[in-house]
């Protein structure tokens, strides 16, 4: 296994008297796909929010590229190379696919409003570089035919693809995918899974995903971390996790916790 690009160390998160996360630790391998799974209310979204900067952990620390980011604001984490998608596509309605992707390049721009207003040469060079990256991504994700279409007119599955493409033009090192397959058909899930693998391989990124479709998890993930009631109960390869008695118990209840029962099999 390659070295870790991100590390969660003994993270806890409390809201008043409620423990959303308790002493959770795990790593995301550099270049790997790690899945974060668990029953509803297990703490998956809370952990995502801690990593992306929306929440601040009550205890513990989070490291990215060997730098502690526990207290960094969201935009600073984005500049370091962390990008995120959401369960429901968060695209700019009324804008084209091209414009949505171009908007994601904002953090790479190195010119001021004054320079943009007066049309300094560096502005044109920067915009040309951004456009080249966006056009390459449009081709990579087979979006050429819809590049000028308004995103509101696209199917749900296509919107999910556009959001994934938009996250990639940010050129992240770590991509957080929050239930990327939610609401999609079987064919759409298969297509998006292929694009996720393509993005990982072509852009040399690491992926942490929350996903309820266990078939997708077992097909995509190199490693699986399982939460239950805010605590980590398992961490291993898909084959190891789907046979773990603690994981089986979490999904089916103690009476069904048989070590040889593959409840997480596709």
Distinctive features:
4-stranded antiparallel beta sheet, about 270 residues, alpha/beta, Rossmann fold, 6-stranded mixed beta sheet
Quick overview of this protein structure:
This protein has 266 residues and is of the alpha/beta class.
How much is the average pLDDT? 87
Q: What share of the residues lie within helices?
A: 25-40%
Oligomer: single chain
Succession of helices and strands: EEEHEEHEHHHHEHEHEEHH
Report the C-alpha radius of gyration, rounded: 20 Å
Instruction: Report the strand count.
Output: 10
* Largest sheet, strands/sense/barrel: 6 strands, mixed
Query: How far apart, in Å, are the first and last alpha carbons?
Result: 24 Å
Q: Note poorly predicted spans.
A: 255-263
The CATH topology of the domain at 4-91 and 170-256 comes to Rossmann fold
Our estimate of the beta-strand percent is: 15-25%
Structural class: alpha/beta
How are the strands ordered across the major sheet? Answer: 6-7-8-3-9-10
Coarse morphology: globular
Q: Please give the count of helices.
A: 10
Q: Write the CATH architecture name of the domain at 4-91 and 170-256.
A: 3-Layer(aba) Sandwich
Please write the CATH class name of the domain at 4-91 and 170-256: Alpha Beta
- The CATH homologous superfamily of the domain at 4-91 and 170-256: P-loop containing nucleotide triphosphate hydrolases
């Amino acid at each position: 296994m390659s070295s870790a690009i991100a590390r969660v160390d003994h993270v806890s998160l409390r809201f008043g008297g409620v423990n959303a996360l308790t002493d959770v630790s795990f790593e995301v391998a550099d270049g790997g796909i790690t899945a974060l799974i668990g029953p509803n209310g297990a703490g998956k979204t809370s952990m995502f929010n801690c990593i992306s900067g929306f929440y601040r952990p009550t205890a513990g620390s989070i490291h990215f590229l060997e730098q502690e980011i526990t207290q960094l604001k969201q935009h600073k984490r984005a500049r370091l190379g962390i990008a995120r998608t959401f369960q429901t596509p968060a695209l700019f309605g009324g804008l084209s696919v091209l414009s949505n992707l171009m908007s994601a390049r904002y953090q790479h721009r190195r010119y001021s409003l004054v320079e943009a207003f007066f049309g300094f040469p560096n502005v044109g060079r920067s915009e040309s570089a951004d456009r080249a990256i966006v056009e390459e991504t449009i081709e990579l994700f087979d979006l050429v035919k819809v590049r000028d279409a308004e995103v509101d007119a696209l199917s749900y599955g296509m919107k999910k693809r556009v959001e994934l493409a938009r996250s990639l033009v940010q050129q992240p090192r770590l991509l957080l995918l929050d239930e990327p397959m939610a609401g999609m058909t079987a064919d759409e899930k298969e297509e998006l899974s292929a694009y996720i693998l393509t993005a990982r391989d072509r852009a040399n990124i690491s992926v942490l995903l929350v996903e309820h479709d266990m078939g997708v998890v077992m097909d995509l993930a190199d490693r699986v971390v399982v939460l239950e009631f805010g605590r980590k109960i398992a961490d291993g390869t898909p084959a190891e996790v789907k046979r773990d008695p603690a994981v089986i118990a979490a999904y089916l209840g103690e009476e069904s916790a048989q070590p040889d029962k593959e409840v997480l099999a596709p």
